[in-house]
């Protein structure tokens, strides 16, 4: 409860916009320090088991989860590839990626969210119509 009230709320605020920045590893190191302090362990101990024990998402996983929730809640704004062509391809049900040439747009919320969603297994894509199941 302390982690969620003190650290998690600050960390997850606006994570969709800054989660892909080069400064996110700094936040991850801070998150590990907080876990070490909460659990009373040394800084040389691995945090992998502590994250699982406390059922806490790492910063990178929280970023991916926020992107997926954004896409699920705004699914009407994104079209599948089958709308743009009538060919029966393997990726016809993937969300259509807009053609952009600037890295700034490719690191943005919409483009990154579509990439993350398209990389999901089909079982998770099928339940994506219900945000509570994700």
Which class of secondary structure composition applies to the elements? mainly alpha
Shape: elongated
**Beta-strand segment tally:** 0
Poorly predicted runs: none
Distance between the termini: 22 Å
Structural Rg = 18 Å
Which sequence of SSEs, written as H and E, runs from N to C?
Answer: HHHHHHHH
Strand content: under 5%
Descriptive key words:
single chain, elongated, 8 helices, 54% helix, 134 residues, mainly alpha, 2 domains, 0% strand
Could you characterize what this model shows?
It is a single chain. By secondary structure, this protein is an all-alpha fold. The protein folds into two domains: 59 residues, no CATH class; 66 residues, no CATH class. Helix content is 54%, strand content 0%. Helix 5 crosses helix 7. The protein is elongated and about 60 Å long. It starts with a helix and ends in an 8-residue tail after the last helix. 10% of the residues are buried.
Secondary structure blueprint with pairings:
Blueprint: H1 2-12, H2 15-18, H3 24-39, H4 48-54, H5 59-73, H6 103-106, H7 109-118, H8 122-126
Short description:
The chain is mostly helical.
């Amino acid at each position: 409860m302390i982690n969620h009230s003190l650290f998690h709320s600050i960390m997850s605020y606006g994570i969709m916009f800054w989660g892909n920045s080069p400064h996110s590893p700094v936040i991850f190191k801070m998150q590990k320090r907080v876990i070490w302090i909460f659990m009373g362990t040394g800084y040389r101990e691995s945090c992998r088991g502590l994250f699982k024990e406390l059922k806490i998402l790492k910063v990178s996983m929280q970023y991916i989860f926020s992107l997926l929730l954004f896409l699920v809640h705004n699914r009407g704004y994104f079209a599948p590839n089958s709308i743009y062509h009538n060919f029966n391809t393997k990726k016809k049900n993937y969300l259509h990626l807009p053609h952009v040439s600037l890295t700034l747009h490719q690191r943005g919320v919409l483009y990154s969210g579509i990439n993350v969603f398209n990389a999901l297994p089909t079982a998770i894509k099928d339940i994506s119509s219900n945000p509570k199941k994700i």
